[in-house]
């Protein structure tokens, strides 16, 4: 094997090569400074990632998980009476954006996060398309649900 | 042969919540997206979209999380306005003079920042291999790509990480 090993170096590192292949690869590494250096690079990167401590979830995370609420719990139920109320309340895209631009606290149960939904739907907001489908994910107040 | 029932979400949360959050955080790179990803895993589990495979719960959750993550990446790519992660991108740290000195203790914030800058396909392979501990075969099964693809993404991802913190 006189060609450089490339990604076989990671396979060698991870014990993913058949023994005969591994032996050939090791022999090459011993004779090839470029591959030897590259092997050390991927070994280093692997140890860095393995060494990452577990990420700490923010406050309230476990409580939210254990509550077993499905995502989108604040979406309104679309009955005729609800629809009228929603349309009356949110008469314009600007009003809807203003409604949800109140900063969402980190503990908000709304998922996905409100900020993202504001951006996603503000850019596409249109009064000519069905306002309800545009506004529904923004978290209409509970009083509007049946 | 009886089918094992899918464990309740409460059980999953209690026993594996922290693990799942960690995987989600390493994939997405920020708290809010990690929480959204955990919620998406919950949704997929509850909808029974993922057939439960008795065996490693954490492996199963990792597969769901990674595929949900990549689905979201593909969805975002289709939108002209790409949403930026809410955490600001870290500045690439200055290169260190003593390589050995640096290898001994790369700051985890620097490693995480470099991980977040990896292309999602490379990042997934690195997380499944070096955070979750999957074999190449397990990564291949999880992502539905050939083992050769797993190997090249993992290798490239690691090389980019090393380069980013050189």
List keywords for this structure.
heterodimer, A: 146 residues, mainly alpha, 8 helices, 53% helix, elongated, disordered C terminus, B: 166 residues
User: Ends of chain A: how far apart?
Assistant: 71 Å
Please estimate the helix content of chain A: 40-55%
Number of strands of chain B: 0
Give the mean pLDDT of chain A.
67
**Count of helical segments of chain B?**
8
Largest sheet of chain A: none
What general outline of chain A do the C-alpha atoms trace? elongated
Low-confidence runs of at least 5 consecutive residues of chain B:
86-101
Oligomer state of the chains in this structure: heterodimer
Overall description:
The complex is a heterodimer of chains A (146) and B (166). By secondary structure, chain A is mainly alpha-helical. Chain A has helices at residues 8-13, 19-31, 33-50, 61-67, 80-89, 93-100, 114-124, 131-135. In chain A, α2 (19-31) packs across α3 (33-50). Chain B has 166 residues and is mainly α. Chain B is built from eight helices and no strands. The longest helix of chain B has 21 residues, at 57-77. Chains A and B meet through α1, α3, α4 and α7 of A and α1, α2, α5, α6 and α8 of B.
Summed up:
The complex is a heterodimer of chains A (146) and B (166). Chain A has 146 residues and is mostly helical. Chain A is built from eight helices and no strands.
What are the SSEs and their pairings?
The complex is a heterodimer of chains A (146) and B (166).
Chain A: H1 8-13, H2 19-31, H3 33-50, H4 61-67, H5 80-89, H6 93-100, H7 114-124, H8 131-135
Helix pairs in contact in A: 2-3
Chain B: H1 9-28, H2 31-46, H3 57-77, H4 99-104, H5 108-117, H6 120-131, H7 136-143, H8 147-164
Helix pairs in contact in B: 1-2, 1-3, 2-3, 3-6, 6-8, 7-8
